[in-house]
């Protein structure tokens, strides 16, 4: 059962990046580089219910992940275990479950209560998950697994850079520059936040 979990979590993380590419062709005018993934969950999107259900499922899977990954870290550091638990819970609730229950509008305008809850939930969720690679890096440094530690640390730095670009993307002064590619920066941020968690799963499956 434990080995099944460690195989499934990386699959869920991969699907989170792949599913938007499967749903986007049904939404005329959607652009992966310019639009965030959650736009596919707004009520104008043809398969918004599918994306909403996916976010709820992903959030539940990540909450379950905390019960497996955190004890793995506790073998070296109780503090790192608690930090990862907090990160995963905040992301699961804010970045996934609340974002699914309260969809954003098509333009991402913060005009409705739903859009505001979605916006604040996703910001706090993403901000928390940005530090997951750092926690994983410290875990591997403690175990003197330098190669894995440096890999996780590189993921943290890249995730931080892309998250900053993601935040800057919707600022008017960057509207006609490459920085405005909000969708691309979001996907790259998630990729580098997810990779260290997949590394942990590979260790847990051993």
UniProtKB/TrEMBL annotation:
Keyword Transferase listed: no
The organism's place on the tree of life at top rank: Bacteria
Transmembrane region(s): 7-30, 50-70, 82-102, 122-141, 148-169, 184-202
Keywords: Membrane, Transmembrane, Transmembrane helix
Protein name per the record: DUF998 domain-containing protein
Protein's organism: Pseudoflavonifractor gallinarum
Higher taxonomy: Bacteria, Bacillati, Bacillota, Clostridia, Eubacteriales
């Amino acid at each position: 059962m434990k080995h099944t979990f460690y195989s499934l979590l990386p699959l869920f993380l991969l699907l989170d990046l792949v599913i938007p590419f499967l749903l986007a062709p049904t939404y005329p005018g959607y652009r992966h580089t310019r639009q965030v993934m959650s736009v596919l969950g707004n009520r104008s999107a043809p398969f918004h219910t599918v994306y909403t259900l996916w976010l709820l499922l992903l959030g539940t899977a990540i909450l379950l992940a905390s019960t497996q990954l955190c004890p793995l870290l506790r073998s070296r550091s109780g503090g790192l275990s608690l930090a990862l638990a907090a990160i995963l819970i905040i992301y699961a609730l804010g970045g996934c479950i609340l974002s699914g229950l309260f969809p954003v509008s098509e333009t991402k305008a913060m005009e409705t209560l739903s859009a505001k809850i979605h916006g604040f939930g996703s910001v706090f969720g993403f901000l928390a998950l940005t530090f997951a690679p750092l926690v994983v890096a410290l875990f591997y440094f403690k175990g003197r697994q330098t190669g894995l530690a440096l890999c996780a640390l590189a993921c943290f730095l890249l995730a931080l850079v892309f998250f900053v670009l993601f935040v800057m993307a919707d600022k008017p002064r960057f509207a006609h520059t490459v920085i405005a590619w909000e969708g691309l920066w979001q996907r790259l941020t998630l990729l580098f936040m997810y990779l260290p968690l997949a590394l942990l799963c590979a260790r847990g499956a051993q």
